[in-house]
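Onboarding guide, step 5: your first structure request.
Type a short instruction followed by the sequence, for example:

Predict the 3D structure of this protein.
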Amino acid sequence: MRNDPEKLMIWGFGSHEPLDMYRRGGVLSGGIPGGARWLKEWHNFFDSEESVALLEHLGVNIIHCRFYKGMGWEHEKEDFPAVRAFAERCRRRGIKVLAYVQYSSLYWEILGREIPDLRDWALVDEHGEPRIYGGAQYWRHLPCPSNPRFFEYTCGILQKALDAGCFDGVMFDNIVTYPCYCERCQRAFRKFVKERYDFPFLDPDFIRIPPVRFRTGEIQDPLMQAELAFRQEMLTGIFAGFRKFIKERDPEFILSGNLSLVPQQHYYLGRDEIGFVKQLDVAVSQSGNEVRAENGCVLTQVPELKLARTLGVLSLPLNDRAGASPDRKPEFLIARLCEALFGGGIPSERVASRPRRGGGPDLALIEDRKGYLDKLKKLHRDYEKLLALPHWEPIGVLYGKEAMVKSQTSVENLLRVQESLMRNHLPWKFVLADAQGVRQADLAGCTTLIIPGTKLLSDRAVADLKAFPGRLLAAGEECGDCDENYMQRAANPFPETERIPLAGHEILAAGNTTMIRWAADNWREFFPELPKVRLNPESTVDFKCTPGGELAGVLITSPVKCFGGTIELPEGEWTAEGFGGEKQPLVFEGNRAAIPAFGGACVLERRF
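The system replies with structure tokens like these:
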């Protein structure tokens, strides 16, 4: 999907929900005002040939469009002729189209007409009441994950998308699940515990799914840990089933879905990121990380892209805030686009497809964004070979699956380590670990491995870490204090391991945003062998190397204007090019080169 240099994937979308959904909500959704009197006129325009021509003009070449929202096919099929016409117009202009499929909503006020026993399809809370999707949306019930009829019904929707002949794939939205307390789920949970666990302190025939209110922080309750594993396996199994259903019928049909690749504990409570992403061709990492700098914090998509690369999935970093308001500064927009390009992901442009008040496209905004996207495509063409080279990331940061799920402390420690590395411009990547140990393939190229204050580590992971042939660093004092089940060891397993201080960067926001207030620290001093980079701390630096390990380029982004800096580089002929600027030779003093001022992004390239 990303091998053709002339076809850099640029993802766009606009009116991707059915009109009735916008009307039912009556609020701003994805930049579309559901309560607008002129909404139908805009909706019809978006489907038109003129609108698709504007998408092509803008540079969008992959898009998801409305198809199924959860109101029931018998209702939504009335809109399908317009959807098909839009999709066919897109494909004639070389734009791939993914059918939007809602996973987590049952619009019971209208779907009940098609499904008389819809109440049995709903996920229920501890009191037996259907759980709503979120906020005040009482008219959207979540589906029960153990109801086979919901799975079968969704497969029927997928079959319709496959049969339509106008789609290149599907995009599942809102892939979330919560504990369901229906008796069907209770029976399935008891069976799961009987087969997987030997708890001498309880009888599985008498257990019930633990209450939801205790599901954050430090999860040490063994039954709650079992329920987390139960729900994670269930969701992964559902999407493995969807993948099998699709790929048996059309191996080239794209399966994508939105899940946030942001280290936040609540995301992991119902989803095993490591196993789940294997079911997707494209992971839409939907978060609140609209690239910007404010309040002493730098919001960036870079960690999401790094995690996607480690997980082996193509990622679309997608920030919710950008759907409602344009980027406030050019540097914000440039950094966002170039972070995705430099990180091997898919850049997106969603703002240009918003309607103006009263309906109709904002042609001035489209032309403005087209200018940026044209420059992005030129950057991609000019540096095709450099971008295709491997990332040089000699520092590995352990990403412990069990710790991410069961320990909020471990999550925050990882975020602090991540921030120290990024603000000191040190080259790093994630290294996966779970109950089976450290994934050895991730260690390729790592000369240093950091345990980022990870409290939970399996015996196998501890053994793998001790056998690591490079430099092992423990951040903080509690690394590996407990096993993967949160059972404390008699002694810390790394008493002689070199320590690195865990910086106290303030974690300001959970939700779907990674907002960390950084204060200058001394982490740069712990890695004297790595190239010294002196730039504004808001910038991020990514190194590229040849297959033989020689530095070949440096990719830099910054959401604020950078007034220049310096970097240590090996001898050679190097050039620098700021986004939209001219290529110029780097000026050296000894082994130190002067980085020119730039806005948003800059590429340094070595000529061999």
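Each response can be followed by summary notes, for example: The chain has 19 helices and 30 strands.
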